[in-house]
Specification:
Strand 1 and strand 2 form a beta hairpin. It is elongated, with a radius of gyration of 22 Å. By secondary structure, it is α+β, with helices and mostly antiparallel strands. It folds into two domains: 98 residues, Beta-Lactamase (2-Layer Sandwich); 213 residues, 2-Layer Sandwich (Heat Shock Protein 90).
Length: 332
């Protein structure tokens, strides 16, 4: 009866398939999703029902490798696959169809162009900063060359994404060290950090394992957060940015990345509207950056929390799932 209750109460269409990919159990939302009864669906291969053999391949992969596959894009849904156990025995795969959020950039070309402009401007800023340092140093620096090449490649990937119907919420996961991604994002602002004389503190938990993320998208998110923090500290007497990582207590099996700045902070009205497109208090701002950060974090199955006080600074916490199974990190 507990399984029946779970199937009934789940908010998305859900189906349990056996090791051969054949439908064993569905919830009512899945019946409505396909306009077919459980009696009709039972015993048929999921890929056959959906006319999508790639779905069967993902089911087989999830079952065979005992791995969760999160956010596989299928038509208008994100599909999640997870091994299904009963009394510690692997029985099949749980498949959930989560409706893909509407891309707000698809219906408003002007909004799309502003978002594109915003995201291209960030890596260009990193390239400009590296070039200025080159000019000041007047010597060859391999690390600065790597920054320039890396950021040019990021622009190329961004433009390639656009030609393939760009979607901020559709990540491409691979196992990465979160600290390397953070330091890459912060290092892109090394020139500005030096000019503003910002003290950057890293409080990293060295025990964090590699986790499955989209490094390009997460770099986008962290770049936006660091950029906003530095801009908020331009008029501050004390300029300090602290980046902390660790294991989250709630929710479990998540890590956190916390950015704390000593900038001007935000009032309640600004906090309430922070993630709305076009909302900005900056004279030349687009109001897109924070919105993009939230969409990227949501695309990772994560969560973002913000605390701020006018005149005292802002703390942004990004929670990212580790996608653990059987108590172990799948990237381990």
């Amino acid at each position: 009866m507990e399984l029946e209750d779970l199937l009934f109460s789940h908010p998305f269409p859900l189906v349990i398939v056996n090791r051969r990919g054949e439908v064993e159990k569905v919830n009512q939302k899945f019946e409505l999703f396909l306009n077919r009864s459980e009696k009709f669906l039972k015993g048929k291969r999921l890929g056959q029902i959906l006319s999508a053999p790639e779905i069967d391949r993902q089911v087989e992969r999830s079952f065979k490798d005992e791995m969760e596959i999160i956010g596989y894009r299928f038509r208008e849904s994100f599909v999640h696959f997870s091994p299904f156990f009963s009394s510690s025995v692997k029985k099949g795969v749980l498949v959930i169809f989560e409706p893909a959020p509407e891309n707000p950039f698809s219906g408003d070309f002007l909004l799309f162009l502003k978002g594109l402009s915003h995201e291209v401007r960030n890596p260009l800023g990193g390239i400009k900063g590296a070039a200025r340092l080159f000019k000041e140093l007047k010597v060859y620096d391999e690390e600065l060359v790597d920054v320039i090449i890396s950021e040019v490649e990021r622009i190329e990937r961004l433009l390639n994404d656009i030609t393939g119907s760009y979607d901020f919420s559709k990540p491409s996961f691979r196992c990465e060290n979160i600290h390397k991604i953070i330091q890459k994002a912060v290092n892109l602002f090394s020139h500005k950090i030096s000019l503003l004389k910002v003290n950057v503190n890293y409080l990293f938990d060295p025990s964090l394992p590699e986790i499955p993320v989209d490094p390009d998208r997460l770099t986008q998110a962290f770049v936006n957060i660091v950029k906003n923090a530095l801009e908020a500290m331009e008029e501050s007497a004390v300029r300090e940015l602290t980046v902390e990582t660790g294991y989250a207590i709630r929710p479990a099996d998540f890590i956190f990345v916390k950015f704390r700045d000593s900038g001007r902070g935000m009032d309640e009205e600004e906090l309430k509207n922070l993630f709305l497109p076009f909302f900005t208090t900056k004279e030349r701002g687009t109001g897109i950056g924070s919105f993009i950060v939230r969409e990227i974090v949501k695309g990772h199955g994560g969560e973002i929390k913000v605390k701020s006080e006018k005149g005292k600074g802002t703390e942004i916490t990004v929670l990212i799932p580790m996608k653990r199974r059987d108590g172990k990190n799948p990237c381990g």
